[in-house]
Design a protein that fits this description.
Elements (H helix, E strand, L loop, with lengths): L4 E5 L10 E6 L4 E4 L3 E2 L4 E10 L2 E8 L10 H31 L1
Antiparallel strand pairs: 1-2, 2-3, 4-5, 5-6
Length: about 100
């Protein structure tokens, strides 16, 4: 099994001015590419600025073909919790509205 992509995320710029460098395997060696779309896995990489695990900074993230970030595990859990809370709230509001209608 061969490693098709070699990605360097060099936030401190130890290796040069670029934060992100991507190399793709050709028949005999790796060649640097500016394309962040990793064709073999059908996903692009992107640089994202924000908070991750209580640290603000620039992070390397996966995204979809429309440049929407793919959620981390924690983000997925938080989204599910918010969705569940919203559903419960909507259910309570609907019950309250229904009980108000019948009282009138």
């Amino acid at each position: 099994m061969r490693v098709i992509y070699y990605v360097i995320f060099d936030l401190q710029k130890y290796l040069g001015e670029q934060i992100l460098r991507i190399f793709k395997l050709t028949e005999i060696n790796y060649r640097e590419t500016s394309d962040t779309w990793l064709e073999a896995i059908n996903l692009p990489l992107t640089l994202w600025e924000g908070e991750f695990e209580n640290f603000n900074g620039i992070w390397l993230r996966w995204c979809d073909e429309n440049d929407n970030l793919l959620l981390t595990g924690d983000e997925s859990v938080q989204k599910a919790i918010l969705k569940q809370k919203s559903r419960k709230r909507i259910t309570r509001i609907k019950r309250k509205i229904a009980s108000t209608k019948y009282k009138s």
